Amino acid sequence: MHKKQKISILGSGNVAYHLSTCLYKTGLAIDAIYSRNIEHARELSDLVNAIPVNEISKLPDDSDLYLVAISDNAIESTANKLNKIFGRKPKVVHTSGMVSSSVFDKYFNHYGVFYPLQTFTKKRNIDLNEVPFFITANTIEFETALTNLATRITSKVNIINDNDRKVLHVAAIFSNNFTNFMYRISKEITEKNNLNFEHLFPLIKETSNKILDGLDPAQIQTGPAIRNDKNTIKKHILFLEKYPDFKDIYILLTDKIQNLIK
Q: pLDDT tens for residues 120-132?
């Protein structure tokens, strides 16, 4: 891929927002932003000097790379549309952790995955140089090109196969999505009882810092479950009777913690 690479971005969500704005800042040209919602396409296009389009047929036919940052269940249908319009010539990647790169095999000659392992929220600044990117490609040549592209925005570039990327994605769900759901529960419990959720912030920070400092999660587990403090557990469950969904989660996790240490 040449120095002044031209990229078309398919998608206008969180991942598309961060990747397109970051790539643009490195000096790359963003040809177009595609979204089924033209207003969403315009909003992001305005930030990266790109053409907004809401039909795949309106994408430029000479982009050096088509980066597909859309929901997993729409990747193959989008690939099919790209193929019908442009044939097998486009070089195409998606950004999914779980969708195999082979989803593109019957559509394109050069394809792969450009996966940033991070949680993204629009307009929230993230230092992408600290984000690990995982590259999968169907040829050595394209793998090198994608690696060179990734090194423009991060110092943490990794070559990975489809299966290992899926393993990382599952692990990330536990580390991020499920953990965040626990925060949501904590926030609801505190606020419904007229307490400030921010009282828990030092606890949240210290728990995270232990992991970031390299401590083994299995060795730093605390709480009534690991201590088999039956009296406290009973009191917690009694309190949670008014939150039946949360009670079920509490009982399940308590059971799993205790079973894992046996």
A: 999 899 999 999 9
